[in-house]
# Entry
Amino acid sequence: MDIVYTIWLRNMKRYLRSKSRIVGSLGMPVFFLLVLGFGLNSVVSLPGMGQGYIGFIIPGIISMSVLFTSVFSGIQIIWDKQFGFLKETLVAPVSRLEIMLGQTFGGATTSVIQGIIILVLSLFIGLNITSIAGFLVAFVFMLLIGLSFTAFGIAIASKMEDMHGFQLIMNFVIFPIFGLSGALFPIDGLPSWLKSLTMLDPLTYGVEGIRYGLLGTSQINPFFSFVVLTGFTVFMVVLGAYLFRKINV
Amino acid sequence: MIAIQVENLTKRFNGLIAVDNISFSINSGEVFGLLGPNGAGKTTIIAMLSTMLKPTSGSASVNNFDILKNEDDVRKSIGIVFQDQSLDEELTAYENMDFHGRLYRIPKKVRQKKIIELLKLVELENKKNNLVKTFSGGMRRRLEIARGLLHEPKVLFLDEPTLGLDPQTRNRLWEYIEKLNKEKGITVILTTHYMEEADRLCDRMAIIDKGKIIALDTSEKLKEEIGGDVITIKSPERDRLYSKINTLSWVKHAEPHDNSVTISLQNAEKHVDEIVNLASGNGIAIDFISIHKPTLEDVFLHYTGRTIREEESGTKDQMRMMRRMGR
Ligand SMILES: Nc1ncnc2c1ncn2[C@@H]1O[C@H](COP(=O)(O)OP(=O)(O)OP(=O)(O)O)[C@@H](O)[C@H]1O
Ligand SMILES: [Mg+2]
# Structure
């Protein structure tokens, strides 16, 4: 456990030191929140949603922030590989599983912090948190998204030689995962082909879980969301650990 | 006491044989050099001995631990400074050391004490709270050496420890390495393509070329092997000069390379005028001629038929340095 903590600690130090990264990675979510939220608030009306479209997408934007930060944290392993630091970690008498878990927890922590920053900013544009329990539910779902997608990033990084493929992954994997989740639109009433894609997207369950926590309503049963997302997290961590074990430096 | 035992170690990358069936052993307390040009296989040997790379075939043990069966014990008992930098630049010198100490599970009290002790040794104590990205190449190298010593390894691997450093810093590092070896009895295995470095530091050295050990002994013995003296002649008509010289009976061995011919022989003083006469008699110009006792450079030339190309390695070093700076 002390090794996992050591790796986690390094991640935290690096995160807290990179002020520009913290602020920079808030840019896009805040932009989405303001432009889409205020832009569409008056034209989109969602039945059964008390807080308007802005309230509806806040959980989606929080998920987005957690998603992007966590994938990015996982993929950072490639930098460690290129800058040589990974060798220092891998030659130590510690297991690769410990290293991978430390990285996963580190990435999850930073991404949850990023999500919470968005959440706090949302309080200023009309989000009302009514109960501690609701906040905790949202927190648990953020954590699951953070864990699963950091592990996902690590899995990708273990297979990639350098950062050249990064753009590809962003455009063809991460954006679709975000776009197809129910972050920006309600699932009910989608054409059935799109709905099936949405239901296959693990992020959908994270968004819906956070939505349940913050707004009190969701279109997918929160317990079901929790089970699916937990299953996905376990799967990703196992896959990430497996691929990381075979990483070559 | 044997620190490292290597038997028929081989590594292939796809079609390429990087390390070709080598065997040798290193005594504990020794400073042992792996000497060879770029691509000889030095780093690959170290990577296998430090368990970072699995051999294709053969076996080896480090501190009596098998590199395949007792990976963890090998790792605990070695320290390593990689050829390419392996520091976290966003952390301070102290934090880099601390990270290492935690990975090797050194208790907090001991860890804090040893970190300061080692930072003092490499004269970085007053910089301990500076980010590594503000460090010069020499400072980084010293920090890496200090870090490699934190868990008190019995064997220390140094892969090109002074690559790209200025002569002053290089001298300093040599002093540290000598001190570590003498005072703490640490066995040191270092790779280099600086002959001077090998000459000064290594008790014994293996000359490696194309994955094979082509000679292994002390510096003195290797030079004696060539015997007598060496004459180096620079001439615009190298090949013609070479073919003439090769016919002389007292020439033990002659070798053309770059734009010179190198000759090994006994009693060079007696024969040098014959050579000059031979050249002028045949109308071959001589730009430069020198007589010296064999150096490691000559030893290398003798065994490989090539010099260790300093220019070639020079540009490669510069590239590495630039990569380091650019980070
Ligand atoms: N991961 C790898 N995949 C394929 N080939 C490799 C790999 N690592 C090394 N090689 C090849 O193996 C040979 C030996 O490389 P190695 O790095 O051990 O040489 P070296 O003696 O350390 O050289 P240098 O002085 O440049 O550091 C080279 O031809 C190199 O191209
Ligand atoms: Mg090398």
The mean pLDDT of chain A is 92. Residues 2-245 of chain A form one domain. The longest helix of chain A spans residues 96-123.
